[in-house]
Structure formats: C-alpha cells, structure tokens
Amino acid sequence: MSGLTIGYALTGSFCTFEKSVEQMRRLIDEGHRLIPIMSETAFSTDTRFGRAQDWNREIEELCGHEIWHTIVQVEPIGPKRLVDLILIAPCTGNTLAKMAHGVTDTAVTMAAKSHLRVGGPVLLAISTNDALSAAAQNVGRLMNTKHIYFVPMAQDDPENKPNSVVSDFSLLPAAVLSAVQGKQLQPVLLQK
Question: Locate the Flavoprotein domain: which residues (predicted)?
C-alpha cells in the first residue's frame, strides 16, 4: 500500500534522529507523503547529536513540507482528516506519559489527540531509558488503547541500561502498513 499521507512526528530522543530520518527517506521512496511534526523541544534544541537548525533543514528538504511544531498548526489534523496515520518516531517516555494521561501540551501530543478523535491510527516507535521501569505503566496503558499501535521493540543495552527500550526502526514501514489496516505488527517484543 503506497500513497499514504503520514504525519511523521519526532520527539526529543535525539540519539535516534538519524535512524528516524533514514526511515523517512525509506517511506518517501515507497511512495508515501510525509508531513513532518516536531515537539517544540525537538524543533529547537541543539544537542551532541546535532544542531536543531541542521536537523530541521534536512527534514524539511526531505519531506518537501515545513515542520509543524505548534499546537495551532497540528490541531486541524483530525477534523480536516489531513493524514492517514500519525507516526511518532522517536516517541519518548515523556510523550508516552502525556498520551497515557490525556495531556496535550505539545504539537506532537495534540497531533495524536486530533487524529485519534476521528478514529485514526497512531503508531509509536518508542525510545526511552525507562520503558521497563517508570514508563512501563504508560506503555501498558497505551497498548490497551484503541487505535494506538507500536513499532516492535527490544532492550537496546540490557547490561548497562536494563530498563531502556528502543523500537526497531527498520520495521517502521511494515508497522505503518499494519497500523493503517488496524493491526499490531507482531511480535511486539523482540529478542536482540
């Protein structure tokens, strides 16, 4: 299935931006149209993984669309049915918590809420150091929420970061196709 319009959202797990941008390219190559969305933090923060200005330029050039990074920009997504899917890749533990508790104070959480209110699918590619500790209850709550799907995930460094989980970004295109069909790509938990 090609030709989907995907609201592709990034939150502040900056260490996975490179993987995420690779998958943006892949989705575009497969014929999908991407509307980039970023949390205000992801849009404006320089880190050891790159300057915000450089990431923003690369993403806008790749997608051929300006980055939506305010609540006002993304609120019409649901009512106007602007996308087929909201994809949050990476999705931080902070964003998981906000979504699990109905907090919509960023462009990304508002985009998800707006799309969910019309029954649209939301796909999460989590990347968080506390997925198996403080964020575990939020992962569980969202796994049990209608229209929310996950890119399969695994512990990324069990020895040094036993609570950390990152989605397998290479499975993102397959997870997109499953989510728009109303199915969770299996298995959700991967062995690395």
Answer: 6-163
Kindly state the tokens that stand for 87: 């994809």
CB atoms within 10 A of CB 107: 25
- Token pair 């907090």: residue: 103
Could you tell me the domains of the chain? Answer: 5-180 (3.40.50.1950)
C-alpha to C-alpha distance for 121 and 14, rounded to whole angstroms: 24
Instruction: Give me the amino acid identity at 158.
Output: P
- Which has the closest alpha carbon to 166: 18, 54, 47, 50? 18
What string of pLDDT tens digits covers the 192 residues of the chain?
679 999 999 999 999 999 999 999 999 999 999 999 999 999 999 999 999 999 999 999 999 999 999 999 999 999 999 999 999 999 999 999 999 999 999 999 999 999 999 999 999 999 999 999 999 999 999 999 999 999 999 999 999 999 999 999 999 999 999 999 999 999 999 987
